[in-house]
Design goal:
The protein has 450 residues and is mostly helical. It has one domain (2-189, 211-433): MFS general substrate transporter like domains (Growth Hormone, Chain: A), CATH 1.20.1250.20. The chain is built from 21 helices and no strands. The chain has helices spanning 2-35, 37-44, 48-73, 78-96, 102-116, 119-130, 133-144, 146-165, 167-173, 175-185, 210-215, 218-247, 253-285, 289-309, 316-330, 332-344, 350-366, 368-387, 395-405, 408-424, 427-433. α18 (368-387) crosses α19. The longest helix has 34 residues, at 2-35. The radius of gyration is 22 Å and the shape is globular.
Length: 450
């Protein structure tokens, strides 16, 4: 028995390590346009609206194709789907570095979005079958470490490569690790569906109307709404923080990316690990523990981000401290909410559930974040230009416009916290309906007594 358990643990550990690498590359590749936004804007003569639109079209196509990929996740071999997706988006990221105008860059980013849409549903479905409920939030937290790690590495690498070799080289070099990881994915054994949910109610085939069944779960509606608000904020920050630091605080590309690597990437590792640990502890005591934790931390993040943006020009130390703290606690969201989805959704529908969630939060949130912030930036920049009595747009006006536009982020963080509080009121009933509450699990992971 011990040998069997050791084998299962080793298999799960290897799979989680590879899936972490997949997620890291997923966010590394998608963050490159944000990290290199200023040199791209200047080479192609773009407005902030056009720059933000690159992120918007990426997320829209990501959301659209995510639904069929989610259904395919629940029906096909997940490791093959992930390997194909990683290969496709890696090659198309390299193609982005060969773009000769805005239109070709636009087209290649559409292709990257299609490839990356395979990642979340299939990876999270695999983790749900590899890890039991009592350890799932921590496992998902480790998987989601790929987000801050990928963002951090994207900023660090882009700052160094962009200054030394130009922005195109960063896209071209990103292809190589993707092809290596795609091969490693094929070494992961495909687990049995529902293997991590002993004692839970499982329905064969996921029911006759999967989308309808999922939308009949009230908690999922609140989670979807929170995802739209949260992703609006995160994609707006990722698209424009480095340009903001370059314009408003007058930093170089490398300096700005180093700051972004820290406050948008590295600090998220702490938030995810601490959030996954605390989420598992709280959910063992009360079913609404995950969402309550996420709501409290999101509410704490809002004033930190507001005060970071309010720092005067050149006050980099205050900006780093406050923005880093706000982003760190907001990363708790991923470890808590993703595990909550698995808590209220049966195993055969988890791939579809993640795809539905991603579709809604990307269409209603992430797709709007970059372009809406870009439009606000252009609007406030024109106001600054008119107030100064100038007839031509200059960089100081662009800096003022982007600074004012980014205040929308802490406002929506507060709204997200309120939505998460509402979701915490329905989660217990949804878990009960799914037959997932028998009695609280002890913290040592032992089985409860009948």
């Amino acid at each position: 028995m011990n040998d069997v358990r050791t084998g299962i643990t080793a298999r799960a550990g290897f799979a989680l390590a590879v899936l972490f690498a997949v997620n890291l590359l997923n966010f590394f590749d998608r963050q490159l346009p944000g990290a290199l936004g200023e040199p791209i804007r200047r080479e192609f003569g773009l407005s902030d609206t056009a720059l933000g639109l690159l992120g918007t079209v990426f997320t829209l196509v990501y959301a659209a194709v995510g639904l069929p990929f989610g259904r395919l996740t629940d029906r096909w071999i997940r490791t093959r789907l992930i390997a194909i997706g990683v290969t496709a988006w890696s090659l198309l990221t390299a193609a982005s570095g060969l773009a000769w105008n805005y239109a070709t860059l636009f087209a290649t980013r559409l292709g990257v979005g299609i490839g990356e849409a395979t990642c979340a549903p299939a990876c999270q479905s695999l983790i749900g079958d590899l890890y039991p409920s009592r350890r799932r939030a921590f496992a998902l937290g480790v998987f989601m470490l790929g987000l801050p790690a990928g963002v951090c590495l994207a900023y660090l690498a882009s700052g160094w490569i962009g200054e030394a070799l130009g922005w195109r080289a960063a896209f071209l070099l990103a292809c190589v690790p993707g092809l290596v990881v795609a091969g490693l994915v094929l070494l992961i054994p495909e687990p049995q569906r529902g293997a991590g949910d002993a004692g839970a109610q499982v329905t064969a085939g996921g029911g006759k109307a999967p989308i309808g069944a999922l939308l009949g779960i009230p908690t999922l509606w609140w989670i979807i709404a929170s995802g739209a608000l949260h992703n609006f904020n995160m994609y707006a920050i990722n698209a424009f923080q480095t340009p903001f630091l370059q314009r408003f605080h007058e930093m170089t590309l490398r300096e700005a990316n180093n700051v972004s690597a820290l406050v948008l990437g590295a600090v998220g590792i702490v938030g995810l690990l601490a959030g996954g640990w605390a989420s598992d502890r709280l959910s063992a005591r009360r079913p609404d523990g995950r969402l309550l934790l996420s709501a409290v931390t999101m509410l704490a993040a809002a004033p930190c981000v507001f005060l970071a943006l309010a720092q005067p020009k050149g006050a980099i130390g205050g900006f780093v401290l406050l923005m880093g703290l706000g982003i760190m606690v907001s990363f708790v969201y991923y470890a808590t909410v993703y595990a909550a989805i698995q808590d209220v959704v049966e195993p055969e529908l988890r791939g579809t559930a993640v795809a539905v969630y991603f579709f809604a939060m990307y269409v209603l949130g992430a797709s709007l974040g970059p372009v809406a912030t870009g439009m606000l930036s252009d609007h406030f920049a024109r106001q600054a230009m008119q107030a100064a009595g100038a007839s031509e747009m200059a960089e100081p006006f662009r800096a003022a416009g982007l600074h004012d536009a980014m205040y929308v982020i802490p406002v929506l963080m507060t709204a997200c916290a309120l939505v998460l509080f509402a979701g915490s009121r329905t989660v217990a009933a949804d878990m009960q309906r799914r037959g997932r509450i028998l009695q609280p699990l002890p913290l040592d992971g032992a089985s409860p007594r009948a």
